Amino acid sequence: MIRKVMMFTTFALSVSFYLATVAMAAEEAAVKEAVKDPKAAAKNPVRQLARKETGSASATAAAAKAFEKVSAGLYPKAKQEGNLIIYSVWDVEHLKVTTEVFMKRYPGIKATYWVGSNPEIVTRVLTEFQRGQRSFDIVLSDTAPPVIRAAGGIMDYNTVQRDVLYLHDPTMPTVSLQIQALAYNTEKIKPTELPKSWEEVANPKYTGAVALDDPMRAGPLSSMLAALKTQWKDDTRFNNFVKGLKALDVPVHKSAGAMLELVASGKYAICMPALLNDVVEQPHKGSPVGYVKTIPPVVSARQAGIYAKAPDPNAAKLFAEWLISEEGQKTIDSVGRESSRNDFKSHISIEAAFGKNMKPLPVTDQLFLQDRKKWLDTYVKPIWEG
């Protein structure tokens, strides 16, 4: 049986909500200011993510050959530039490891980085872009690059290794993935009681038992809603799902990692949703956490967007290509980030975690990717806050 636990809304939750609201408002204001430039807006038609689930030996070989050729051409120019400036949401330790391997591979290029949240990155980049500042070269993130691109701040770059990418955008290389899983506490809920789908989490029988991400914060649950709306193509079904989540009568959270820790501690039975790279580490900590392997994982792109005014564009292109190369993906995997390639073997790959025949659920809604707040205000807010 599911043990229902009474939850209390705390002052910290209120502060967290306030800060998230301010951050999203700042991001929206920055985008509106940036797109006042009609020339910038005109250069940014809607881009469509292409999806390719399986790799092949020939595609792998072709990608390796293409990488060697393009890197041979870019390296001399990048070395002459001498620098690579990165803005990112990645952990500092992850960036440290990744850039050290890159600099060892390509001597003569000094990589530096600045780390901030997605709203901080968007606000800073679009402010610098409007001022014409050649302040950095490349942004590594999940949500920031499409927003910056919509304002004209991203230089189009189509990677030569596109045929081995699970999700491919012809303007921005996908260097990693965010993979969502439905996690649960193995001591709080029996396997037979688990939801059989994402939709079933909204069943009233799970009232009070779910650690729920805030659907309005433009986080993992927001991405899931966009993916499900695309898949279902049924407004009534989608609206009922959102209503069902609201009816679970639980406080919402601002951090997927914090949610998972609450599930691991036993305060909740189910984490809606969790990030796969966090979930697979829980057993190593001795935590009673598992995940439902029969529910399709929600997958979104983590991209490398090359700044339109990059002072070191060749170094940026070389870095983006290297991140997708076998060496780059091994480095990304070593710090616990999911590979973007469909031919890369890892314990946190979709195939390893869910099986060879699993069909993931990609986030491809273009309005959502370019303006999450607008999408949420249109499709979720009327139901969630109504």
Query: For the record, what is the CATH homologous superfamily label of the largest domain?
Result: Periplasmic binding protein-like II
Helix content: 40-55%
What is the distance, rounded to the nearest whole angstrom, between the alpha carbons of the first and last residues? 32 Å
- Number of domain modules: 2
What's the main sheet like? 12 strands, mixed
Instruction: List the secondary-structure elements in sequence, H or E.
Output: HHEHEHEHEHEEEEHHEHEHEEHHEHEHHH
Ranges with pLDDT <50 over ≥5 residues?
1-24, 33-46
Q: What global shape is seen?
A: globular
Oligomer: single chain
Number of strands: 14
The rounded Rg comes to: 21 Å
Strand content: 15-25%
Number of helices in the DSSP assignment? 16
CATH architecture verdict of the largest domain: 3-Layer(aba) Sandwich
- Class per helix and strand makeup: alpha/beta
The name CATH uses for the topology of the largest domain is D-Maltodextrin-Binding Protein, domain 2
CATH class designation of the largest domain: Alpha Beta
Q: Mean pLDDT across all residues, rounded?
A: 89
What do these coordinates show?
With 386 residues, this protein is an alpha/beta fold. The protein folds into two domains: 23-175 and 300-344, Periplasmic binding protein-like II (D-Maltodextrin-Binding Protein, domain 2, 3-Layer(aba) Sandwich), CATH 3.40.190; 178-298 and 377-384, 3-Layer(aba) Sandwich (D-Maltodextrin-Binding Protein, domain 2). Helix content is 44%, strand content 16%. It is built from 16 helices and 14 strands. The protein has helices at 11-34, 38-42, 57-81, 92-105, 118-130, 144-150, 220-232, 235-246, 256-265, 276-279, 313-324, 326-334, 350-354, 366-370, 372-379, 381-384; strands at 50-51, 83-88, 110-115, 138-141, 154-155, 167-168, 174-185, 210-213, 252-253, 270-275, 289-291, 298-307, 338-339, 361-362. Strands 2, 3, 4, 5, 7, 8, 9, 10, 11, 12, 13 and 14 form a twelve-stranded mixed sheet that branches. Helix 7 packs antiparallel against helix 8 (235-246). The protein is globular, with a radius of gyration of 21 Å.
